[in-house]
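Weekly puzzle thread! Below is a chain. First person to post its structure in token form gets bragging rights.
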Amino acid sequence: MAMKPHRIYLILGGVSLVSLIGLLLLLPRMPEQIPIHWNSAGEIDSYGSRWMLLLFGALPLLMLGLFQALPRMDPRKENYQKHMGPYLLLTALITVLMIAAGWITALSALGVSVPVSRILPVMIGVLFVCLGNYMPRIRFNYTFGIRTPWTLASEAVWKKTHRAGGIGFVLCGAVLLLAAVLPWEWLPSLAAAALGMLVVFLFLYSWLLYRKEERS
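Winning reply:
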């Protein structure tokens, strides 16, 4: 029997709250400057105030509130019931990713060696692969999915664009997963470039589909 959405939100909210409390307890031990960004090689390339840790800790809870509100706010709210499974899975993956990012920051600030170049590509890669697999199941709505002026104007364009987007996100995720296990430093950059090209492609693809639909 599938778990009800409100129970999933309660579990995710509880885990996020415990994470926030843990980060708050660590805050007095943080140095004045903490790492907030890593480059593609997993090296720290940007620092910020230790109070940024509060933002990292609170962000999962804030995002959970937004994820819970979106189905109620959307004019096509009835379609969320048709893709609630994928929506909840992606909500959980994004929440876990944000919690992990907060703890990676905290542990790195305390001098713990964290293999960021391995952990983050795996987590983001899994997120992209899951998103790609479920993307064709996302029903027409105004807040969740590939939202261009043309996918929002035509349900047929929406469906075709999401099928193409699903393939693209799986491929980008696969490159990221390879980047976590292969010693090729250019793979994360390739994944980032591929994602940028995918966004441009989907934007143009949805426009071309809409133009074709108008002509026919």
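Puzzle host: Confirmed. Bonus trivia for everyone else. The chain has a mean pLDDT of 89.
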